[in-house]
Design goal:
The protein has about 550 residues and is α/β, with parallel strands linked by helices. The protein is built from 23 helices and eleven strands. The protein has a five-stranded parallel beta sheet with strand order 5-2-1-6-7, sandwiched between helices. Strands 3-4 form a two-stranded antiparallel sheet. Strands 8-11 form a two-stranded antiparallel sheet.
């Protein structure tokens, strides 16, 4: 039966069980949907920045409150580039596959998809896609709808894993969660290779045909290429086209003629290029720095290269995240290697890089190193486990509910209620209005907080300590505001926004859930970040817009 592979948040070939299963079942159509309801006009969501005056005009952050699942401007621009790169990569590897990218409503997406008998789709832990999942479940029965987890280390909807999760959720002890994932992690390397086609299945003719690999591909991807080669060689030997191939082609042609006039490869690429250029022009006009893919590479290969470069330090038992340079932007690294973070979170967020591949690279060479890295809360592996915990919690009842429903669930319990400070004023104006406060007659300076917000708006990425400073200022610190105000701001601005991780972190940092220890801990919003710096930053090879002066000098101060 003809089928379609729907990719929403897994723009990679390496360790992609969804793509593997689809190709294994002779799927020839890959569909990438973009929901128009989630995309605001660039002029309505990109803040206007004045670097010389250190001011930000941003009155649109309130549109990102809970329930409005708009794409943030940094991440949407990066998403468009990732889709274009992934589309070109697929066409280069698998010439017979039809890749369709469409930006339209969910109802039109579903109408297009259901023209195919079987649907293979990635599972996304984001309420923005819940209506899409519900519509798919209505149109397909369980035998013809296959959802695969691609964002997490484990499949938390698996019976055994969910049984542990349900029992763990009553106390939610971080260490017990780590220990459970650690006990399952010894199979990760095997699972990664199981998502690829074993080369032993290839005959000598196919091995000779595919000895030359396509440029900029990952180390595991050729095996999937060989899988498709096997199908093509088998079809040519019989000198006929398979029945499933005909069915898929006919279904695609029928759906194309019915639902749109612009389904050809050229118009799809032209629309995507036009959208990218439009957003880039607006971002530059508003003095915001676009996150562009370097030339002559794919987005996935860029991520894999960065992973390779940082793996030696990240797998070391001496690497500690709190000791990394908190003043650095995503386009910089420290002269001391172990003081640099991986800067791979944007690639995890869009499924460009597999967290399981990163875990295997960072766990260490020996079992003792692996165990040490899994236990230490500040190791690189521990950061993946924090991410995993929030994604697992997203399956629990109450995680995605609004504040009105909190009394019925485990989430959002705390000793103190705070007022909501969401207003129609710009966010920086809201910060500055509280910057005039005094403590024992001395004015309170918030230089670090203002600089962190400026970097967040312009670059879309800031160090985790800067995120802590902003969270402290908004919630348990000066503003005493609802944590959803911060969640909305980060959804709007973050390049690496992940709905589950964003919500989980704000619940934790505001002391609403997971831990109440943060209630009594506060940061010096004037110079905490600068006092954490002990080395000089140096620019990386990631390009930056020279015409925009950002954040003043790049020399870190002690």
């Amino acid at each position: 039966m003809d089928g379609i592979c729907v990719i929403r948040n897994t723009f990679r070939v390496d360790d992609n069980i969804l793509l593997f299963k689809a190709l294994q079942n002779n799927v020839n159509t890959i569909y990438i949907p973009i929901d128009t309801r989630r995309v605001l006009k660039p002029t309505d969501c990109v803040p206007v920045v004045n670097p010389s005056a250190h001011t930000i005009h941003n009155k649109h952050y309130t549109k990102y409150n809970s329930g409005n699942y708009y794409w943030g401007y940094h991440q949407y621009y990066f998403l468009l580039q990732a889709i274009r790169s992934f589309e070109e990569d697929l066409r280069q590897r698998f010439s017979h596959i039809k890749v369709v990218v469409q930006k339209q409503s969910i109802s039109r997406h579903i109408s297009f998809i259901t023209a195919f008998g079987t649907c293979y789709c990635d599972r996304v832990d984001d309420p923005a896609w819940f209506s899409f999942d519900k519509a798919l479940g209505t149109q397909y029965d369980k035998a013809h709808l296959h959802l695969y987890p691609t964002q997490t280390l484990l499949d938390w909807q698996d019976t055994d894993h969910y049984s542990f999760l349900a029992q763990w959720s009553h106390k939610r002890q971080n260490q017990s969660f780590k220990e459970y994932v650690f006990s399952q992690s010894f199979d990760f390397h095997t699972q990664i290779h199981q998502n690829e086609c074993n080369t032993t299945f290839l005959n000598p003719l196919q091995k000779q045909t595919h000895t030359k690999q396509p440029p900029h591909t990952s180390q595991h991807s050729p095996t999937i290429t060989q899988l498709h080669s096997r199908k093509q060689v088998h079809a040519s030997s019989k000198k006929e086209t398979s029945t499933s191939g005909k069915g898929a082609a006919q279904s695609l042609q029928s759906a194309t003629e019915t639902h749109t006039k612009r389904r050809t490869r050229n118009t799809t690429e032209w629309n995507l290029h036009t959208e990218i250029n439009t957003w880039k022009d607006i971002m530059l006009k508003h003095r915001v720095v676009p996150f562009d893919i370097p030339p002559n590479t794919t987005c996935e290969q860029w991520a894999l290269d960065m992973l390779t470069d940082c793996s030696k330090e990240m797998s070391s038992t001496n690497w500690e995240k709190p000791k990394t340079q908190s003043t650095l932007s995503i386009r910089e690294h420290s002269i001391t290697p172990h003081r640099t973070t991986s800067r791979l979170s944007p690639f995890f967020a869009l499924g460009i890089l597999s967290p399981r591949v990163a875990y295997v690279r960072w766990q260490g060479r020996t079992v003792a190193q692996h165990k040490s890295n899994a236990k230490r809360p500040s190791s690189a592996v521990a950061q993946l486990l924090w991410r995993e915990e929030f994604h697992a919690c997203s399956l629990l009842e109450g995680f995605w509910d609004t504040r009105m429903n909190k009394a019925d669930h485990h989430f959002w319990k705390r000793d103190k209620e705070w007022t909501t400070a969401a207003t129609d004023t710009g966010f920086q104006e809201l910060l500055q209005a509280h910057a005039t406060k005094t403590v024992k007659g001395t004015p309170v300076s918030v230089e670090d907080t203002n600089t962190s917000v400026m970097m967040l708006v312009q670059d879309g990425w800031i160090h985790h300590l800067r995120r802590h400073v902003i969270a402290d200022y908004i919630t348990r610190g000066y503003l005493q505001a609802d944590w959803m105000l911060g969640e909305a701001l980060f959804r709007q601005c973050l390049l690496d926004h992940d709905a589950s991780v964003n919500r989980g972190n704000w619940l934790w940092l505001s002391a609403c859930d997971f831990s109440t220890a943060q209630l009594v801990r506060h940061y010096n919003h004037n110079d905490y970040i600068r006092r954490q710096s002990t080395a000089t930053a140096t620019a990386t090879a990631i390009p930056r817009v020279d015409k925009i002066r950002l954040h003043g000098t790049r020399k870190e101060r002690v």
